[in-house]
Amino acid sequence: SYYIALAGLPLASARSPLLQFLRYRGKINIQRPKEPHYERARVIAVTQPKYPEPPKAQTCFQSRAQRMGTQLENPYNAIVAREVRNWLDHSRLVAVFHLNSINADEIFRVRVQLHQKNMHLKSYGRKIIGQAVTGTAYEAIMPLFHSNYCIVFSPNEQQIGALLRITRKVPQMILMGGIVESKLLSRNELMDFSKMPSLQVAQAQLVQTLNQAAGNVVQQLQAHQCNLVKVLDVHAKGEASSTEEAT
């Protein structure tokens, strides 16, 4: 028939299109886009808009002291510096600790334990410490205050043992040095000082040594006399026994 004849014609066969669009490119990275071509990058750089910078006030970049031409001194710093000087003058034991990262609760517990032993934990600024010790005998301790630190004051130098026992449980507090009876000591010297006996015990040991030496001198001086008395006593007893036998 007619439809069967048309089915045999070449125009009725299915053919694929001559032009087919395919996309082989992956996803576009928005966060890290690909660098443009050199020519395009140059055009983008040339066409970048340039906005004039707003005028800046010169006084914004100067400190208040420079603008006024004078150095401002806070009178409260002088009061605190006098307080630090008073602590240094009336404390027979001063220990300086380097303070690592520590929370407020831990440092409060340490402060309470030290207060129970009649020791006081303080912390001041380096400028205040410098104002307190400049021109005094304590000026040699300034190199210990370059970082975060704390100071422990005690009126009794024999409390060094209790201080070390308390701070040994707090690894954030590192002993750097201290002052004992107006003498600057290092960490090792403070450790050795804590092992020494108290002044009363040392005085008792000295008295015992002096008495023992005096007793040895007296014993040595009387040694010959005692030996002579013993020899004469033996000789007298020997003569008395010989006379008794003769009778």
From TrEMBL:
User: Subcellular location, in the record's words?
Assistant: Mitochondrion
Q: Extract the InterPro entries matched here.
A: Ribosomal_uL10 (IPR001790), Ribosomal_uL10-like_sf (IPR043141), Ribosomal_uL10_bac_type (IPR047865)
Q: Which domain of life is it from?
A: Eukaryota
- Reply yes or no: does the keyword Nucleotidyltransferase apply: no
Write down any Gene Ontology CC term: mitochondrion
- Return any one Pfam family short name: Ribosomal_L10
Q: Which SUPFAM superfamilies would you find in this protein's record?
A: Ribosomal protein L10-like
Q: Which UniProt keywords apply?
A: Mitochondrion, Ribonucleoprotein, Ribosomal protein, Transit peptide
Q: Does the keyword Transit peptide apply?
A: yes
| Family designation | Belongs to the universal ribosomal protein uL10 family.
Extract the PANTHER family matched here: 39S RIBOSOMAL PROTEIN L10, MITOCHONDRIAL
Q: How does it assemble?
A: Component of the mitochondrial ribosome large subunit (39S) which comprises a 16S rRNA and about 50 distinct proteins.
Name of the protein in its database record:
Large ribosomal subunit protein uL10m
Lineage, opening ranks: Eukaryota, Metazoa, Ecdysozoa, Arthropoda, Hexapoda
